[in-house]
Amino acid sequence: MYQSNLGFDAAGLWRKDHDHFLHPYTHFDSFGREGSLVIVEGEGCHITDASGKRYFDGIGGMWCVNVGYGRREIAETMAEQAMRLCYSNTFVDVTNPPAAELAARLAGLAPGSLNHVAFATSGSCAVDTAIRLAHYYQSRRGQGSRKLVISRKNSYHGSTYLGMTVGKRDGDQSQHFKYAENLVHHLSAPYPYRRPEGMTLEAFSDFLVDEFRSKIEELGADNIACFIAEPAQASGGVTMPPPNYLPRLAELCRGNGILFIADEIVTAFGRLGHMFASKDMFGIEPDMILAAKGLTSGYIPLAATIYSDQIHEVISAPDPDAWFTHGFTYSGHPVSCAVALKNIEIIEREDLCANAPAWAATSNTNWRNSPISPLSAMSVAAVS
Predict the structure, then answer these.
(1) Are residues 50 and 145 in the same domain?
(2) Do 219 and 250 sit in the same domain of this protein?
(3) Is 136 exposed, middle or buried (0-12, 13-18, 19+ CB in 10 A)?
(4) Comparing C-alpha atoms, which of 350, 381, 349 is closest to residue 365?
(5) For residue 165, what are the CA distances in angstroms to 158, 253, 297?
(6) Hey, which of 20, 125, 180, 350 would disulfide with 120, CB 3.0 to 4.6 Å?
(7) How many domains would you assign to the chain?
(8) How far is CA 298 from the centre of its chain?
């Protein structure tokens, strides 16, 4: 049997994976024929497979390895925290130092009054948390009829039951699954390249805003809990919205009592040149920001739903019968939170947020004149 020069049994690993591992987004016909590419090492912006072949990982995993592979100080932080406290329940009234420190750190980095954090282990679960939080908030303020969610076509918000219902990227919603009916309503994607022929960017922005206004009138503002949007759609095409689109939608949300959820699971922690892109790049202060992926640079699972003082004041108002019955076994996991703190330290110390757009502007590609260049460049700039 073939043995790789890295000491891995490449054929044996391929067979075990082929026979036993159900991969995310498996296409059974091609997987049955070809199986998996077995990746065994990562360093900087390169990964290596079990046969020793080296690849340039320009995306950075699944938009997540923002500081690059093989950071020894992150691995050491992980090991030290695991030896000190490997796990801590955080239900009701128990916490741990990394969770408390990270919550405060994220509150300091997030814009405006986003000073409160709910932790999860994936971006999908952060989306679920945000929508359940929106429902809870609307009900606690006496508007329990507000249950509907407005999202956009060609968006991706995870693959849980709720997350896949909220997103609507072409090909994601299989006829063989079921989705929550009548809960989510989708608007046109803010995809300037695909706008109607002859329409200016400004007119396209007007069209999208008018569509949102019409959807609010159609559904009734008092039935809508929240609007969720990726500031820049990532897996839906790596697209930037037209001018003033997001601020105008945020204004409509505020005027109609609809919470604005910014899904920054991809765009946060440097990928667009900012810790969070909502305020610094797009001029909006959402009611919630969702983060994952670059929060720990993919070294360990962690996600955060960061929400406003306004929401917290409502949900935490005195009521002996009010319990926020949502959360996860691994919410605020001490090892994950310790890694996130170290990861943020590296991003700041090495000025990676400034490095990403600077790298894109000086590269020898034709990205320099494209508004999507920072999104494409972050993974490489972090380790260049």
Answers:
(1) no
(2) yes
(3) buried
(4) 381
(5) 9, 21, 27
(6) 125
(7) 2
(8) 12
CATH number at residue 110: 3.40.640.10
Single out the residue of 23, 263, 277, 233 nearest to residue 131, CA to CA. 263
Q: Which amino acid is at 175?
A: Q
* pLDDT by 10s per residue, the chain, length 384: 234 456 778 899 999 999 999 999 999 999 999 999 999 999 999 999 998 999 999 999 999 999 999 999 999 999 999 999 999 999 999 999 999 999 999 999 999 999 999 999 999 999 999 999 999 999 999 999 999 999 999 999 999 999 999 999 988 999 999 999 999 999 999 999 999 999 999 999 999 999 999 999 999 999 999 999 999 999 888 999 999 999 999 999 999 999 999 999 999 999 999 999 999 999 999 999 999 999 999 999 999 999 999 999 999 999 999 999 999 999 999 999 999 999 999 999 999 999 877 776 665 444 333 433 445 444 444 444
The tokens for 119 are: 């932790």
Q: Phi and psi dihedrals of 51, rounded to 5?
A: -90, 0
Give the residue from 202, 203, 265 showing the smallest Cα distance to 232. 265
Looking at the fold, whether 51 and 172 belong to one and the same domain comes out as no
The token duo for 253 is 């949300």
> Is residue 51 domain-shared with residue 77, that is, in the same domain?
no
Instruction: Determine, yes or no, domain membership for 167.
Output: yes
Residues 136 and 45 in one domain: no
Whole-structure pTM value: 0.93
Residues 122 and 20 in one domain: no
Residues 37, 79, single domain; the answer is no
> Residue 368 falls within a domain, yes or no?
no
Range of 7's domain? 1-56
The 10 Å CB-count burial string (b at 16+, else e) for 261-298 is bbbbbbbbbbbbbbbbbbbebbebbbbbbbbbbbbbbb
Give the start-end residues of each E strand in the chain: 39-43, 46-49, 54-56, 114-120, 148-152, 184-187, 224-229, 259-263, 288-291, 303-308
User: What strands, in cross-sheet order, belong to the sheet with 184-187?
Assistant: 114-120, 303-308, 288-291, 259-263, 224-229, 148-152, 184-187
Inter-residue contact 51 to 4 (CB < 8 Å): yes
Rounded to the nearest 10 degrees, the angle between the axes of helix 245-255 and helix 201-219 is 20
Indicate whether 362 belongs to any domain: no
| Residue found by looking up tokens 């049994």 in the block | 9
